[in-house]
Design goal:
The structure is a homodimer.
Chain A: H1 4-11, H2 15-22, H3 30-43, H4 49-56, E1 61-66, H5 72-87, E2 91-96, H6 101-111, E3 118-121, H7 125-130, H8 134-141, E4 146-149, E5 159-163, H9 165-178, E6 184-188, H10 194-209, E7 218-221, H11 226-239, E8 245-248, H12 253-263, E9 273-276, H13 280-283, E10 291-295, H14 297-313, E11 322-325, E12 327-330
Parallel strand pairs in A: 1-2, 1-3, 3-4, 4-5, 5-11, 6-7, 6-8, 8-9, 9-10
Antiparallel strand pairs in A: 10-12
Helix pairs in contact in A: 1-2, 1-3, 2-3, 5-14, 9-10, 11-12
The structure holds a DNA duplex.
Chain lengths: ~350, ~350
Amino acid sequence: MITLKDLAATLGVSVSTVSKALKDSPEISKDTITRVKEIAKELNYRPNTLALSLKNRKTKTIGVIIPDILNTFFARILYGIEQESTALGYNIITCLSNETFEKENNSLHLLANGSVDGFIMSVSEETQSKGEVKHLKETINQDVPIVMFDRVANDVDCDKVIIDDFNAAFKATETLIKEGRKKIVLVNSLGELSVGKLRVLGYKKALEKHDSYTADPIVIEVDDDQELLNDQLEKIITEHKDMDGLLCIDNISGVMSVNIAQRLGRTIPNDLSVIGFSSNKISHLSYPPLSTVAQYAEEIGQESVKMLVERLENKTKGNTKTVTINYSIELRGTTLPVS
Amino acid sequence: MITLKDLAATLGVSVSTVSKALKDSPEISKDTITRVKEIAKELNYRPNTLALSLKNRKTKTIGVIIPDILNTFFARILYGIEQESTALGYNIITCLSNETFEKENNSLHLLANGSVDGFIMSVSEETQSKGEVKHLKETINQDVPIVMFDRVANDVDCDKVIIDDFNAAFKATETLIKEGRKKIVLVNSLGELSVGKLRVLGYKKALEKHDSYTADPIVIEVDDDQELLNDQLEKIITEHKDMDGLLCIDNISGVMSVNIAQRLGRTIPNDLSVIGFSSNKISHLSYPPLSTVAQYAEEIGQESVKMLVERLENKTKGNTKTVTINYSIELRGTTLPVS
DNA sequence: CTGAAAGCGCTAACAA
DNA sequence: TTGTTAGCGCTTTCAG
């Protein structure tokens, strides 16, 4: 690694002269500036970020904690985070909590000591179900800001970026009701997650609101595991012969259901209308392609970065905000065409 | 942020005493050690990693450059990288090149100045098609080692972790031939990527090798885009009425093909046998579930970390290795059952 | 047993 | 216009 000292030595000037010359300081003569820059280029000098960070007490680095990178939704958010960070001149250190409290806690401690200027994170499933928040509050108290996205801890006061899961499910359910569906089932593989609960509530609320809909809500808990899920969905579709609407609130059960239902002889969307929460990519793995609640995952990532950087660079204290990112209902082929 | 200085001040001792006490130095009295540790815990002291890195001239951080995080294969590799890094006490800084040379190059420059001890990366599509290697060689010459995985630059001398794509495709094709298939088509959406080319070669080689197989190889280039792909696959399946074997060398065209073929009235696997290169997760999105060439993506990530850390900690110079990670053919429902 | 001092690479106030 | 110095947080000789 080539340092200022090296440049100074080869030129026979002092380190500070070199430092200033490289930043076009008016203190330094044109001549030296060009000489310094030349040799810097020649020796391929790169300032040591570490030293800079230590000096400036900021790292231009964001710690990102993702619960599950194999989940497309989170992968897309990471994509958005990376894009926006790069655009704003920040690097990201990515940690995966794998849905455990322990890893989440470790990452926070490991990085909240000057390694990063702030965090962007979604809390792990374990953290959420246990209701742990101490580690989060501690970090914030140490003046390392956190922006939470998607899965947020309600009793932690920090910036948040969420989706209006309640309304998304509400609207999706309404779409089915307006098609005249009489038995709409909700399939839930999200377990204890807050987003899952919100979606279930939205579904129930929609059913309640519409007098034309008379059946009781049917919420079926299924597994997260693909193979189990396949069987469970098949069972649901077989047993509920009169089911004519299906709301799948995770990424994959929608397409799976469509494929299974067709195999079992149901005609989609005529017999059965299906709406999922799948990503665009997944939704084309069935035919007809799955109608979905589209979540602007990339935007969630981008917005999170914006909020964090805003706080970091303007030293905003307090006044935390919660931003709700839009969703949209994308009707493709598994719902009736709208005229 | 609380520093050694702070601890020293509150205890009325010197910084160096505190530093030594925290590492249980025999120079320091038992008494002071306990007092120091107590206060350190109380004030929640965390050593500043930046300062340590600057001092030690190593960061215990690995730069990871991923071409496309939305690609499940890469997401799984990242998962493996993160797991193993954590296990070995390293952090990762993740950069996404989005398949561009520019971002890849930037990331390399940005971090190869002391921010990371080494890199783990897969070269971007653009880098590969342009045959750019200068930035890679430069980094290595600056004594920042690189481990490349999956998509590697052949003319760069560094550690590599690859899959035997040629043989994987060869074996998959053989599986179809041994089922007695007479017209096996290969669908390629991988464009110019080296892995794609290798898979095509493996396919061709297998066809050649078996005298029982008499048809010419049929390689059909398709798009990467989901919607286009859907139409293109439909067209292929419609036009090649006598196709009885299909090898899909990317992550999704396999499941798509199965779903489309069934909709078009083909019986799978009797009429048509399909093998894909999909991840386990995706392969269950068709019914029957897709038979695949399973790639141990997590293992690729883990192995890459092991190789890099080995080089970093043992200061291995030269003697670069290439490790080939296993694949396995996982026969599920889209190929004939083996007796 | 404890502390002072130098140094990792860099910047910036101050001197020359 | 250039150089000296101190300091970011830490470790590590070397003195006390």
